[in-house]
Amino acid sequence: MSLIEISLPEDEIASIEIPSAVERLIVETEKRIDAFMDEPRDAEIFAFVPCDFRMAYRGLSWLKSAGLAPGRLFCEWGSGFGGTAMLATLVGFRSCGIEVLPDLVDASISLAKDFDVEVDFVCGSFIPEESHRHLSSPEEFAWLDLSAEAAYEELGYDADSFDLIFAYPWPNEQHLIYDLFEACASDGALLLTYHGEDGLCLNRCVRRGDRRF
Description:
This protein is of the alpha/beta class.
């Protein structure tokens, strides 16, 4: 497999209006994240940094309306508080979230329940066990817990089941996320990533030499 970057129409995406119900969810998510982070926590929690949920909503909304994904099954790798996974449900995807920190999983489940948004959140690793060989230098990633079990069995899916994956990689982990997606994803699946001030990036996994896309 190889990755093909898909150009995103930034102006068109930025012009998408956010419905009031979605804005309420985003505001409440941000409020709860702030409260959560103000509480005394283990050091590992500080590896959690939320993305720009409004940008994520606009990107997901555009992607869904453009019909680029081969299907409706969505998964967020490192779902944190669950904000983006819930937004994916609201734009029409069947959404899952994988997060290794139990406190964040509990918080995301509670938030989704309060807003009656259907998302399957599970605690575990988004790295399939057979893909550990792609971690050429795992010591580079202080946040990476290789002892955690992969969460796909609990979800009831294989790693290559998803039509769209979302991730917010730290600067030094971007190549890991891309390598894992290229190794695990099915032909035609999409990877949407958020890169802070650099915004969103979209890639499609294709068989080498495939010209369909």
